[in-house]
Amino acid sequence: MICRYKLILIDEVGYISFDHAYRTRARRQLLARTAPPAEPSATAAAILKSVVDEHPDAVRVIQLYDRHAGEWSRDRGGKLVERTWLDRFMASLPDQRTVLDVGCGTAVPIGQYLIDQGCQLHGVDSSSAMIAMTRTRFPDHRWDVADMRTLALNGRFGGIIAWGSLFHLSPHHQRRMFPIFAQHAAPGAVLMFNSGPSAGEQIGTYQGEPLYHASLDPSEYRTLLADNGFAVIAHTVTDPMCGHRTVWLARTV
């Protein structure tokens, strides 16, 4: 999902204070479980760090899109500046032209274009309002309300696309997505997703509400792809021919 937004740059550590990070009940409980005098285990330390690093706006993205599904569908429209990359994605697909659309939104225009080119889509999105719209528009394809962070479908796909969706996750959750991508990739499958040009967090606005975005460093994306069985086919930073989006295209090896 792409929006027009004002950027507020935040460093990789984030600006959330220790006190703020533990204000909620769940975070206070986590702190109690890992509090001195005992040193936290490596697992507990990793969980603790992920909680500290989670920006408060990161947990509000799903609700924002659910509340404004109709406005988003109107504003996104059918303009397809992504056509060149979508064509490259489809040209790289193996014979299995089944595509998993992760964060499919309302499926217009991305999903619609893939369908028009003969792909069979299985789309997932956390917004039930958007999925309801998509089921009405394209009833011959499968659309599920699902959180990509816990996705575990019974099937593998020739293509996986996370266009305008992965970058709404916090860095911690983005890292955890690459094993999920690998789990759903058929032999020779291609993966395409967007990121930011460099590591950091950015807060935009949509309908007057904060909209969270994040990116890892390009070198970390390359490592995550390689560690999960993908080889990079192409990577373009702020492509001027694609609305200045940063795009990754990779294939299973």
UniProtKB/TrEMBL annotation:
The keyword Hydrolase does not apply. It holds the Pfam family Methyltransf_25. Keywords: Methyltransferase, Transferase. CDD domains: AdoMet_MTases (cd02440). GO terms for molecular function: methyltransferase activity. GO terms for biological process: methylation. The keyword Transferase applies. Residues 99-188 form the Methyltransferase domain. This is Methyltransferase. It comes from Mycolicibacterium canariasense.
